[in-house]
Structure formats: C-alpha cells, structure tokens
From TrEMBL:
Residues 127-344 form the NADH:quinone oxidoreductase/Mrp antiporter transmembrane domain. It is a multi-pass membrane protein. The chain crosses the membrane at residues 38-58, 79-101, 121-150, 162-183, 203-219, 231-257, 263-286, 293-315, 321-340, 361-382, 388-409, 421-443, 455-476. This is NADH:quinone oxidoreductase/Mrp antiporter transmembrane domain-containing protein. It comes from Mycolicibacterium arenosum. Coiled coil: none annotated. It comes from the Bacteria.
C-alpha cells in the first residue's frame, strides 16, 4: 500500500532536480552562487525525502507514480539507491559552491549535476525497460556535458570524445535489447518479465547487449580507456563520475536481473570483471599522480562490482555501490588536501622503515591480524547469515584491513604497534559485519536470490587472496627486483593515455 504523501515524495525526487537544471540554465551566469546553493539545497532535500521513503519501504510500503512506460516505483532497492544518488550529489554540489566560486562555468556545473541527479533517479526507480533506458541515456548525456565544463582544453575535449564513443556503443546496445525484449515478450514492464516466455536465441542476444551496455558505462575491458581520459574535468565532476556514474553498470545489471541469464552473458560478465579488477589494480599501484591512481582504483573497484553481478551476489553488489560511492567521492574531493599533506611530509625527515626479518614479520602481521579479527567478529555478531554475498565482501574487508595495518606497522614496527592494530581491528570488523547484515536484511526482499552457493565463493576468495599475496611478495622480495621492474614498466606504459586530436597520427 502507498499513500499520496509517499507518491508526492517520489515524484519530487525526479522533478525537483530536473527543475533545478532548468533554473541553472537561466540563472547560472547571472547568479552563480545563488544557483549553486539552490542546487545543493535541492539535492540535500532529495536525500531527506529518500530517507523518509526508506522508512516507509521498511514497513513494506512501495510508493508508485506515473503510468505506462514512464511508471515509477520506490521499493527498498530504489530508496537505497536514491540515498546514494542524492547523498553524493549533495556532497559534491556543496563542495562546488566554494571550489567553483568566481568561475564562469559554475552555473554549468550546477545544471549538469542536477540533470544527472534527475536522470539517475529515473534509472533506479523506473518500472519499465523504456524508463530505465531513458534514464540511462540522459545520465550519459549529462555526464558528457559535465566533462565538457572546460571544453577549451584539448584534454577535456578528448575525454568527452572517448566517453561519448563508449556511451554511444552502450546506449545503442541497451536500446536494441529493449526493442528485442518488447517485441519478443510483448511487454516492457519489469514485473512481468519473469512470467513471459522470453527464451531462445533472442534471450541470449538481449542478455549480451545488456552486458555490453553495463561494461561500457562502468569502464570495463574493452571499454576501459575512456575513464582515465576524463581527469581534465574539475574535481567535483570527477567526484560525481567516480562515485556515481560508473556505478550505473552494476545498477543496470541488478535492475535487469529478472531477465534470463544465459551462460555466455554470465561468462562475459565474470571474465570482464575479473580482468578489469586485476588490470586496474596493477596500474593503480604505479600511477605517480593522485587522480590518476584514483581513476584506476575506480576501474578495479568496478571490476569487483561487475564480478559480483556475474556471480549473482546482488547484496554484495549494492553494498559495494554504497561503500565505493561515498568513499571515492571523499577521496576525490580531498585530493587537494592530500597533495598538500604529502608536500608537508616531504619536507620532514623520513621515518625509519623496518628492514630484514622485521619487515617480513610486519607483512605477515598485516595479512594475519585482519583475518583473525574478521573471523572473530563473525562469531561475535549473532546475526551473521552466511549468505554468499556476505562472504564475498569478507575478501574486500580483509584487503582493506591488511593495507591499513601495513601502513600502521611501517610507523610502529614492534609488538606494541601490533597490539594497537589488533585492538582497533576487532571492533572495526564487528561494526563492519553488523552493517553488512543490516543492509542485507533491508535489501533482501527487493533482490533476487543469490545464484552462487557459499561453497563456491570461498575458492574464488582463496584464489584472489593467493593472487594478492603473490603480488605483495613480488613487490617486497629483493630477489624479484628484475621482474618487479619489468611489471612496473609495462603497467606504467599501459596506464598512460595520450590525448588524440583530429588529424593527429598515433
């Protein structure tokens, strides 16, 4: 059941940012500061409305609005994604008030960000394939407009060109899939797809086309080159892109999960996700600039997200969308502060680093302590459900804990430092497990059942852990210096994007 208040809130989540985009196009140049503040207030109000709809969804209410191909619905998944979209939009637009103060393109950013917010809201709440595709396409157009904020720079134009080509391919694939599904099944409503007899070669082709669309928007191999080429955009645009737009591939696969998933499509998702995760992580480690490293970090994170989609671990996908979205927005918006901090530290005497056996002990402690903390937290938190999605997220938590512990032990390479790390890791792991359980329980009614058993997830986690340990050993071992240098050189070369201008020869 739903009420008029909830329906009005749902309509406002789409129309308010769309209206703000129109206002920015008129007032942007005349009153840029007022326009920027109105944009931030609109996004913040949308976040509060999304939270209110979340409370209604927790009671079992589903707000609905519109009709026909433009019908909208706000179930638990939609309201969770609303909070991500409007939360990131609020943070970035608030940051841009000062960042773009005095910039003649400030109004352009507010209009593009508001249009992107409205399109993303349609994407996550549309009840039909046509509505999803419409939100998908408009979001891509809005991003290209934002990437062209400083279009007078050749690097900015190159980033727009690369992104537009990738988006054009993905959008064409998605609209072809929508046309094929509607013609073959006679329906475009998501709720009716499981009951239609949509099978055979048409289902295979449609699934592959949807996968192509998702891979192109999330910068997965072979569409991975456009994302690092967009770093000429201003920092708030980069935050919106890396914290929001690239997540659209995972959102699309989650929303269209009722479609048949043939083996060829699943294999394509898993292969592209795993390959991009390894590729992005390798190049991230060698990039000398902060924004470049963050770009390839996003690529690797999206690879993990796409991989969980291929394995049918939908709860892990959505949880990762949230964690990566807010985390990466924070990193991009604080990149200037990070550069200033590095410069300050460079002027100070370097602290002694552990060497020899002590370095090996620190590496072993960095890998062991987070694993012990997670294992203990699983048994301390009574609500642990042993779903495959939760187990997949343990790998991510372990890697994060290992990196943080290694950085801490580099400064305090002694038993006291290890004890401090263990004392902090255990409560952090318990809080992480509790949050994962709470989010999974909230989303469970709106997500399809995981298609991969827990017994099949652990071999994948084990293989990934072995690979990461091998990379760490390669990086730390003095005996592998030559191999390390070769891998470093090839990764650095692969991560270099040369701008292409019309008429130039590569």
């Amino acid at each position: 059941m739903w009420t008029r208040t909830e329906t009005a809130a749902l309509i406002s989540l789409v129309l308010a940012p769309l209206l703000m985009a129109a206002v920015a196009s008129v007032l942007g140049r005349r009153a840029p500061v007022l326009t920027a503040r109105l944009g931030a207030v609109t996004a913040g109000s949308g976040f509060l409305l999304a939270a209110a709809l979340g409370l209604a969804a927790a009671r079992g209410d589903v707000a609905s609005a519109g009709a026909g191909v433009f019908a909208l619905a706000a179930d638990r998944l939609a309201v969770a994604l609303f909070m991500l979209i409007f939360g990131v939009s609020t943070v970035t637009q608030t940051f841009a008030i000062r960042y773009l103060a005095g910039d003649p393109r400030a109004g352009w950013f507010t209009g593009g960000a508001s249009l992107l917010t409205a399109a993303s809201a349609v994407l996550v709440s549309a009840s039909t394939l046509v509505g999803i595709a419409a939100g998908w396409t408009v979001a891509g157009i809005a991003l290209c407009l934002l990437l062209g904020t400083y279009r007078q720079h050749p690097s900015a134009r190159d980033g727009v060109r690369r992104a537009a080509v990738a988006f054009l391919i993905g959008d064409a694939a998605l609209w072809l899939a929508v046309a094929l599904i509607s013609i073959s099944s006679g329906s475009v409503a998501l709720a009716e797809l499981p009951t239609t007899q949509f099978q055979g070669p048409e289902a295979v082709v449609a699934a592959v086309l949807v996968v192509v669309a998702a891979l192109s928007r999330s910068a997965q191999i072979p569409f991975h080159r456009w994302l690092p080429a967009t770093l000429a955009a201003p920092t708030p645009v980069s935050a919106l892109l890396h914290a929001g737009v690239v997540n659209a591939g995972g959102i699309l696969l989650v929303r269209l999960s009722p479609l048949p998933s043939p083996v060829v499509a699943t294999g394509l998702i898993v292969t592209a996700g795993a390959a991009t995760m390894a590729y992005g992580a390798a190049i991230m480690l060698v990039k000398p600039d902060i924004k470049g490293a963050l770009a390839y970090s996003t690529m690797a994170q999206m690879g993990f997200m796409i991989l969980t989609c291929g394995l049918g671990l939908w709860a892990a996908t959505v949880f990762h969308l949230f964690a990566h979205g807010f985390y990466k927005a924070t990193l991009f918006l604080s990149s200037g502060s990070a550069i200033a901090r590095i410069r300050r530290h460079a002027a100070l005497p370097a602290a002694p680093r552990p060497t020899g056996h002590r370095r090996g002990l620190c590496a072993a402690a960095a890998m062991t302590l987070p694993a012990v903390a997670l294992y203990t937290a699983i048994h301390l938190v009574p609500a642990w459900t042993h779903h495959a999605a939760q187990h997949a997220l343990l790998l991510f938590a372990w890697v994060t804990g290992a990196v943080a512990t290694w950085g801490w032990l580099q400064r305090r390479p002694n038993i006291t430092g290890a004890l401090y790390a263990a004392a902090l890791l255990l409560p952090s792991a318990a809080v992480y497990i509790a949050i994962v359980n709470a989010v999974s329980a909230f989303l469970d009614p709106a997500l399809p059942t995981a298609t991969v058993p827990v017994s099949a997830v652990w071999p994948i986690i084990g293989a990934a852990a072995i690979l990461l340990a091998a990379l760490a050993g390669l990086r730390l071992s003095p005996a592998a210096t030559a191999l390390h240098r070769a891998v470093y050189t090839h990764a650095l070369s692969a991560g270099t994007i040369n701008p292409v201008t019309p008429g130039a020869h590569r």
